[in-house]
Write a structure and sequence with these properties.
By secondary structure, this protein is mainly alpha-helical. Helices cover 75% and strands 1% of the residues. The protein has helices spanning 19-22, 46-70, 78-96, 98-101, 105-123, 125-128, 132-153, 161-173, 175-178, 180-191, 196-223, 225-237, 240-266, 282-307, 319-347, 352-383, 387-411, 417-434, 437-448, 452-457; strands at 3-4, 8-9. Strands 1-2 form a two-stranded antiparallel sheet. 22% of the residues are buried.
């Protein structure tokens, strides 16, 4: 045995271990991260590229037919071009969704209504310039067209009224923005795609051509005075600021139109309205409906005593003043009554007593509506016909049809009441337009001996 270190035997000493090995629970064992999965690039279909071209075409039409005439001296032609723009949009949507909508009656009905509203200004162009119906149609046409697109691309049924309403709102405030990323993907695929190198060569060639034209055109203008004259005239008439403004409008609205069309045609946009399963207690229904019926019965008794029983009006009030003061409130109450009917019909218990109370509510609503119609007749006879009074009479007739549908719905449970009311409202509005409201107002006032100015002053 050898000795070292002052005679002590050379015994091998244990080597110190790392801290992690001495205390294996102090540090967790290192595990290398898993390699990140490579995200597959989405393949842009040929239909999406065509959709991009269609969106650009719609944006160009919007700039030329809507924006250009809205702020120009040719404003008198604006209603015609506004209708032509929406007809073009409708045609483009039909080209992309023809297979899914050609056998759907509701889509054809809405298409006929939208087309009729767009063509209305072509038949009544002299009225459409400053007419009240044209101003209201300015808002109604895109609203109806949005409903048509949402219905025909979302695979909805008429009973899905709540879901259609939510998707309709999303069509204005969500869909034009939710597919912007898809717009740039389609734009990149269309411009670059598999021919990236060739595209770069084309861009490089256009840049060289632009540089050469800067040199050649001044020389050609000096070589031929006639050519120089036409070139100078062209550059003078070319308003760069307007050209840039139109370019910005087309670029921005191409993005919005493509986002909307892509969202409604290439992605899941169908929403489900939250269903409320809780029911209104039977006692609550009886108390609420019974109390309302008692109040309305008293109201109708007093009202009919003045309108039909020959009772004198209080305070020396004339019948025209009596009609003017209460008509709007009566129609508003009738509309609220129909809303109450819908709530208790849908969420209330299905008992015979509840059904009887709902029938009584509809009967009293019809009585109030009839008295409102009589009030309106007295008002028109006293002050003449105006657009607002004609619209009120039209709305009363519509509410009468809604009351009939409500009565049918008590018998036929599966009747899509809200959807039918909306469809009838659209069609009834189209009928009003083709009755030529301004011509009808003028004819009625001439028959009564009123002129238009006196009728408007009557309120």
């Amino acid at each position: 045995m050898t000795t070292e270190n002052n005679g002590y035997p050379n015994v091998p000493q244990p080597q110190a271990q790392p801290y992690a090995y001495q205390y294996p629970y102090a540090y967790p064992q290192y595990v290398p991260p898993a390699p990140r999965a490579k995200k597959e690039k989405r393949i842009i279909s040929g239909k999406e590229k065509l959709l991009l071209l269609a969106a650009i075409a719609i944006a160009v039409l919007f700039d030329r037919l809507v924006v250009a005439y809205m702020f120009s001296e040719k404003y008198t032609n604006y209603p015609k071009f506004y209708g032509a723009f929406w007809l073009s949009c409708l045609a483009i949507f039909y080209l992309f969704h023809w297979k899914s909508i050609r056998h759907n009656f509701v889509t054809w009905y809405l298409t006929a209504c939208v087309s009729a509203l767009c063509l209305w200004s072509f038949f009544f162009w002299d009225v459409a310039i400053y007419g009240d119906f044209a101003f209201l149609s300015f808002l109604i046409i895109p609203a109806v067209l949005m409903g048509l697109v949402i219905y025909m691309t979302g695979d909805y049924k008429l009973k899905d009224t709540g879901s259609i309403a939510i998707s309709w709102l999303c069509g204005f405030f969500v869909f034009p923005f939710s597919g912007i990323a898809a717009f740039f993907e389609a734009l990149g695929a269309l411009l670059i795609g598999e021919t990236k190198a060739k595209t770069k060569k084309v861009i490089f060639g256009l840049a060289i051509t632009f540089g050469l034209l800067i040199i050649i055109l001044p020389l050609l203008s000096g070589a031929d005075k006639a050519f120089g004259y036409f070139l100078t005239k062209l550059l003078t008439e070319l308003n760069i600021s307007i050209l840039l403004w139109d370019t910005v409008i087309i670029a921005v609205f191409s993005m919005f139109f493509y986002s909307f069309m892509w969202k409604t045609g290439h992605s899941e946009h169908k929403v489900s309205c939250p269903k409320i399963t809780s029911k209104i207690d039977t006692t609550i229904s009886y108390v609420v409906l019974g109390s309302i019926l008692l109040i309305y019965a008293l109201f109708c008794t007093v009202q009919f005593s003045y309108l039909f029983a020959g009772a004198g009006l209080p305070g020396g009030m004339t019948y025209s003043e009596y009609a003017r003061e209460g008509f709007a409130q009566t129609v508003a109450v009738c509309a609220i009554n129909l809303l109450i009917f819908g709530v208790f019909k849908h969420f209330g218990e299905k008992t015979k007593a509840a059904t009887g109370l709902l029938l009584g509510l509809l009967a009293l609503t019809a009585s109030m509506l009839f008295s409102g119609f009589i009030r309106l007749g007295l008002y028109i006879d006293a002050y003449g016909m105006t657009w607002l009074r004609l619209l009120s009479a039209w709305f009363i007739i519509y509410l009468a049809v809604v009351i009939v549908l409500c009565c049918i719905n008590l018998r036929l449970k599966k009747l899509p009441l809200l959807a039918l009311c909306a469809l009838i409202l659209i069609g009834w509005y189209v009928v009003l337009g083709y009755l030529n409201p301004d011509g009808l107002i003028a004819w009625y006032n001439d028959m009564l001996g009123y002129d238009a100015v006196a009728a408007v002053r009557g309120g």
